[in-house]
Specification:
Blueprint (H helix, E strand, L loop, with lengths): L2 H15 L25 H10 L4 H32 L1
Helix pairs in contact: 1-2
């Protein structure tokens, strides 16, 4: 598998479930198995392929971190609400 194949998977998921529900992450503790993205130093190759396919800056930001941070914020808000309900009991 290479970077183009990897981004094919991203394309598929974006078409299937929408840009707001897809995120990219990595774990190089033992190799990722993606030619062209074998280390953090090659992460730009994934972004470059996304740009080549027409993804906008805003979409790329969502894929790299925006979606994850948004979901984490939502989870924290729910946790605060549940904690407040428990204290009110």
């Amino acid at each position: 598998m290479n970077v183009k194949d990897f981004v094919d998977h991203i394309d598929y998921l974006v078409k299937k479930i929408g840009i707001d529900h897809v995120g990219i992450s990595s774990d190089f503790d033992g190799g990722g198995g993606v030619e062209g993205w074998d280390s953090a130093a090659e992460t730009f190759n994934v972004t470059l392929e996304l740009v080549r396919r027409g993804y906008t800056k805003k979409q790329i930001q969502k894929l790299w971190s925006g979606n994850l941070l948004r979901v984490l914020d939502e989870v924290q808000a729910v946790a605060r609400k549940l904690q407040a309900q428990d204290k009110a009991k």
